[in-house]
Amino acid sequence: MTNSAPTVAQAIAHALKRHGVDVIFGQSLPSAVILAAEAIGIRQIAYRQENMGGAMADGFARVSGRVSVVAAQNGPAATLLVAPLAEAMKASIPIVALVQEVERPQVDKNAFQELDHIALFASCAKWTRRLSGADRVEDYVDAAFAAAASGRPGPAVLLLPADLLREAAVPSQFERSACYGRFPLDRIRPAEADIEAVARAIVAARHPVVMAGGGALSIGAPEALARLQDLAGLPVFTTNMGKGAVDERHPLSCGVLGALVGPASLGRYTRSLLAEADLILQVGTRNNQNGTDSWRLIPPTARLIQIDIDPQEIGRNYEATRLVGTAVETLDALTEALRRMDLSARTGARPALETRIATAWRRFEAARGPLVQHNTSPIRPERVMAELQTLLTPDTIVAADASYSSMWIVGQLRGLAPGMRFLTPRGLAGLGWGLPLAMGAKVAKPDARVVALVGDGGFAHSWAELETMVRMGIALTVIVLNNGILGYQKDAETVKFGTYTTACHFAPVDHVAIARACGCVGIRVDTPSEILPALRDALASSQPTLIEIMTDPGAHPAISLYDGTLDRPVAAEPELV
Length: 577
Hints:
The protein has helices at residues 8-18, 31-39, 50-64, 76-79, 82-91, 117-120, 137-149, 162-166, 192-204, 221-232, 267-275, 327-339, 344-372, 381-389, 404-412, 434-444, 456-459, 465-472, 487-497, 511-517, 531-540; strands spanning 23-26, 43-46, 68-72, 95-101, 127-130, 155-161, 208-212, 236-238, 253-256, 279-283, 303-308, 321-324, 397-400, 422-423, 450-455, 477-482, 521-525, 545-550. The protein is an alpha/beta fold.
């Protein structure tokens, strides 16, 4: 018996393997591709809902530094990929989506679940193409990975006609052997003259600071930023998505700023450092609304210097000196240029800066002290975060849902090393993505301890994936902050309109019962004394565990929207010295 020629589906599977793919987030569709992939050792993580699968692929890519792959059926399944791909597009996360199409002879005949997928993905993918023939398999797979991983990373969609997948693949005359599975695909840096000019500007500045965004978490960038921070004595702020880019215990680390500037926030005490800056070096940040507190944080007198791989992001909202390049190469080049210069002024300014930043952290700890020490029920989320902090290591991965969950993590936890991962869906900030982000991260790093923090409102979007965790052996800890409301919706509507809509309150839900029904360990926490034992047991467990914590519906993060509205105005404090 002779071996038959490989099918197109088999050729696709082998091309994926060449790009380092060992996991596909799928639901057994396109079946021909999944069968071929599993036959050669590519694992399928079979999600329950397509939009959760897309978010799992997002979390996998963020943590692994590799292009992830998600697969879906045509029609309704494809439409459910739009939301996670849109998040990945905004957050610069590379995902290749393999989407089945109806058979070619059925096109434009109202075939079952036929849809114009090219139009569907036009706004949420960098690149969308339909595989054109059995002789172009490797060309198109390579093009999809190159599109996802090159320049500013993002999603690419490859459409696969169902009948074409069954055809025999036609070997290419030109062999392909390259691997495009890691990102950023191309390592680039600005011209030496531009690097030298920026280095001189940093030396000459009286109050230079750094703002680090999500791009500062690309491979090697946190370590490069740490070297620059130490050499030049630069205070570093991060955006929400940039959290983890620096060790927040470093004496020059100012934590997350953004909208977290209300009472009992760290930003309350550090933002004056940014306000006084005469030079701001931005690393991989889009200067978006959340990262700049609605564009109010950047002082108009400061000179901006932007490092970004996307040329169009530089100068979008503020005129800036352009350093187009990948973060690690550009930061390392800048550090080397600074080594050749006189940094005595920076060295001389460092002790006073460190004292000022340490004072800010102390004031922050004092201001939030009553909240983290809160010892009655319902429980304050700040107390939960304080207990979790004691169990974190630099290798722990913490993922959060959108809205308040993200703010509790970025505003209350403290990063322990450059590159520690805090995953928040801040591209579009859709509810329900905290759990699947954590699941993708755990698949990427199975030996890491992974924690997902979700609210009861957002968690309702992703309950079904508890069964996926059990079935696929994805053992992580899910913390559900159950306050019975849509917190941000209720609070924001109250501030803006003086009342809130009927959607903000929920009927009671027993999340522990749901978890146990799916095969997870379920723990309910009603009192503050129960928090630490529950967290300790969950993090030590080899089983998927859900901890439901009954929290105060009146608790909200210290964001600027509530300063003087929900939060009592705080009198101006003396400047940090």
